[in-house]
Amino acid sequence: MLCDIKICTSKNRYGYIRGQIDELSWFALVHKNEVEFGLNPYSLNAGTGKVSRLCIYRDIRMTNYTKRLIYANYKRQWDVFNGSYEKMVKDLVSYLDRIYSIKLVK
């Protein structure tokens, strides 16, 4: 089963991208070229990849504040990684790697 990945078209600048994947929200920092601290889209290890920052989360509105549940958080290394969401993370990283590798040829 493939995940339903959507990219928010507003306020995506300097490689910072936001969107939705299934019922969760996400943001990522994607580079034009692979970087040495990027996330490898096949193994999800730190290595060469285009995604150097990734967070998958869900905001829950409470009475006086918003609670943020984080399922995956990568900042040059994994701070949080919920193994039950591994396929979702792989799908998202592979999608971002593919979509930002497309070059237009005139």
Describe this structure in words.
The protein is mainly β and 106 residues long. It is 13% helix and 52% strand. Strands 1-2-3-4-5-6 form a six-stranded antiparallel β-sheet, covered by helices on one side. The radius of gyration is 14 Å and the shape is globular. It starts with a strand and ends in a 7-residue tail after the last helix.
H/E order of the elements? EEEEEEH
- Estimate the global geometry from the Cα principal axes: globular
Give the mean pLDDT. Answer: 85
- Structural class by sheet pairing and helices: mainly beta
Number of strands: 6
Name the strands of the widest sheet in spatial order.
1-2-3-4-5-6
Level of helix content? 10-25%
Give the N-to-C terminal Cα separation. Answer: 35 Å
What radius of gyration results from the CA coordinates?
Answer: 14 Å
Count the domains: 1
Contiguous helical run count:
1
Layout: helices, strands, pairs:
Elements (H helix, E strand, L loop, with lengths): L4 E3 L8 E6 L2 E16 L6 E16 L4 E10 L2 E4 L4 H14 L7
Antiparallel strand pairs: 1-2, 2-3, 3-4, 4-5, 5-6
Gist of the model:
The chain is 13% helix and 52% strand. It is mostly beta strands.
Key descriptive features of the protein:
106 residues; mainly beta; 6-stranded antiparallel sheet; 1 helix; 6 strands; globular
